[in-house]
Amino acid sequence: MNAPRVPGDAGADDGPVIRTEGLTKRFGRIVAVDGVDLQVPAGSRFGLLGPNGSGKTTMVRMLLGLVHATSGTAQVLGEPMPRAAASVLPRVGALVEGPAAWPGLPGRSNLRMLDAAGTRGGLLVRPGARRRRVEEALEQVGLAGVDRRPVRAYSLGMRQRLGIAAALLRRPPLLILDEPTNGLDPRGIGEIRRLLVSLNAGGTTVVLSSHLLSEVEALCTRIGLMDAGRLVLTEDMDVLRAPTGRVIVHTPDPDAAARLLGGVVEERAGTTVTVRADDPAGLNAHLVSRGVAVTGLEVERRTLEQVVLQRSGSGADRFDPARNGRSRAADDDRSGPSTERIVR
Amino acid sequence: MIGVELALMLRRRRVWMCWALLCALPALVAVLVSATGLAPPPGRGAAFLSAVTTNGQIFPAAALALVLPVFLPITVAVVAGDTVAGEASTGMLRYLLVRPVGRLRMLFAKLVSVAAFVLLAVAFVTVTSYVVGIAAFGFGGTTTSGGTAAVTGFGAVPSLSGPVIEPVDLLTRTLLTVGYLGLCMLTLGAIGIFFSTLTDSPLAAALGVLAVVVTSASLQPLEAAGAVEQFLPTAHWLAWIDLFRDPILYTAVDRGALVQLGWILVAFGAAWANLATKDVTS
Ligand SMILES: Nc1ncnc2c1ncn2[C@@H]1O[C@H](COP(=O)(O)OP(=O)(O)OP(=O)(O)O)[C@@H](O)[C@H]1O
Ligand SMILES: [Mg+2]
């Protein structure tokens, strides 16, 4: 489905495709993005996470030159934004805060118009070439057979697919998608995920912002976590999801197990004992050989949700009356089994 | 982008409605006047209307005078107010900008499409009212004295200052009028585009344009505003009437055209300055 990307695309192998330094945006008194140093490696599937109002969309808008940074710099595909917008943006496909379309036109005409509006999209394009580009994009998002009804009459999911198709026009080597699966059903989400993975396998760098952790967990190779405008964590998913070095032992006799294991026991709850151990098999053998029954043994891994809840506050969209403004009520469920910090 | 803009404009029902209504008003007047035979006496009512009963060919001029003060500005305000704010309100502004369409290029394309709209509007009014005028009042050269009306082909049209205007001459004068009025309306269009960059609401931008028209028109007769009268956007709207004098008086038209060009430059520059520095958060 996706031919290999054109070799020599800027950022394909040299350096990060996105690099920001001290990127800051204020809207009046609100600091939407606060000194973000972000690097997105070429060829990655990067997930920009964060609670509501943490500044994800504002970041995306600055990277695309829609919003002017208050201070700091941004480079996309190796060139400064927004100064080099004219040469950068033709190589970027974007979805920003929901899809949009001219409501009176059918989806196909919408894409044709968009294609014609773009760089070198004018009269010199052979109509066949334009039609092929549009059909390819529609096919990728599963709208190939869409009829001539105007977008006004589209369902939410169809609009979302059309928005993604618009981002895919002309096969950009970098996709920046803000909440790409909003409004899609589980099957649709799966389809889009597979599409993005296959595009990525063909060399496209995918940046998506979301607060749907499951989506990011299933798709991304690296994440950046934003909280109240700041980038509080960037890490490879492999590292985040790596074993925490602890093993959870399920046993009908937790007292015996705890006595036997002594100092390495870190937590006890009901019939489980959490132990610091590098070798679960050895641990199992040790316990069983001393007559402690083991009903289950699992290597502890953090879920993305635990990481995120631990590292970020509640969304900036909560305004509780007490304690002027932002609530930290959600701090209570920021616990999770692990107490240690995940960052190196 | 210009091609896209024009294509989008032509596919908007609102635009066709505007054109249809603009053409319908003069037609309605023609029907009423010809049915009753009651043309307003010279000097009252819209310019030229008193003359049309004797020659339908002058009716386009009368029609333009009819739609000029209110109708035409309203349609221009609606269309120009929609240009940028309309894209912002559907969310297409951001997608056009990241396509990418440069901000200046986008504004210029918008200006061209508004210009096409006003020129076509004025041209449509002229053409339809020519047809309607001839259908309702004949070609002129008719003698109504004896009660036996005999059409003698393309008759000459009396100019406002007496001598007659020959048909070819009439055509050039009409084209000049279309161009001049198009320019006057494009001034409103440019102001509308500027307002349209200030807000995400097409309606607010359109109302802003109408506010400018009303303000300008009410300052015009005011002696206290005498110093700026010359520079008001509406000040020279009626100068085109001089194009139907014999010989043509160009002074007012020339000055009017200069003032309109000045406004277009200023308004377009302001629109660009605003859009170029604007955060697109719609
Ligand atoms: N145009 C604006 N004017 C003022 N404040 C704004 C504007 N746009 C965004 N903000 C503020 O900036 C902060 C970040 O908003 P942003 O839309 O980037 O968050 P987000 O991470 O995308 O949130 P969500 O997950 O809800 O989409 C919020 O506090 C928001 O209120
Ligand atoms: Mg957002």
Task: Write the topology of this structure.
The complex is a heterodimer of chains A (344) and B (282).
Chain A: E1 18-27, E2 30-36, E3 39-40, E4 45-49, H1 56-63, E5 71-76, E6 79-81, H2 85-88, E7 92-95, H3 107-117, H4 127-140, H5 156-168, E8 174-178, H6 186-201, E9 205-210, H7 213-219, E10 222-227, E11 230-236, H8 237-240, E12 243-250, H9 254-261, E13 265-269, E14 272-276, H10 280-289, E15 296-301, H11 304-311, E16 319-320, E17 325-326
Helix pairs in contact in A: 3-4, 3-5, 4-5
Chain B: H1 2-10, H2 13-36, H3 49-52, H4 59-67, H5 71-90, H6 92-97, H7 103-137, E1 157-158, E2 164-165, H8 167-198, H9 202-219, H10 226-229, H11 251-277
Antiparallel strand pairs in B: 1-2
Helix pairs in contact in B: 1-7, 2-4, 2-5, 2-7, 4-7, 5-7, 5-8, 5-9, 7-8, 7-11, 8-9, 8-11
Would you kindly provide a written description of the structure presented here, covering whatever features stand out?
The complex is a heterodimer of chains A (344) and B (282). In chain A, the strands form four sheets. A six-stranded mixed sheet of chain A has the order 7-8-9-4-10-11, sandwiched between helices. In chain A, strands 1, 2, 3, 5 and 6 form a five-stranded antiparallel sheet that branches. Chain A folds into two domains: 16-238, Rossmann fold; 243-301, Alpha-Beta Plaits (2-Layer Sandwich). Mean pLDDT of chain A is 83; it is low at 1-12 and 323-344. Chain A contains eleven helices and 17 strands. The longest helix of chain A is centred in the middle third of the chain and has 16 residues, at 186-201. Chain A is an alpha+beta fold. Chain B has 282 residues and is an all-alpha fold. Chain B contains eleven helices and two strands, in the order H-H-H-H-H-H-H-E-E-H-H-H-H. A two-stranded antiparallel sheet of chain B has the order 1-2. In chain B, strand 1 (157-158) and strand 2 (164-165) form a beta hairpin. The A-B interface holds A 27, 61, 64-68, 85-86, 89-90, 92, 94, 96-105, 113-114, 116-119, 121-123, 166 and B 1, 3-4, 7-8, 11-13, 90-92, 94-102, 277, 279-281. Bound molecules: adenosine-5'-triphosphate and magnesium ion (MG). Magnesium ion (MG) binds next to helix 1 of chain A.
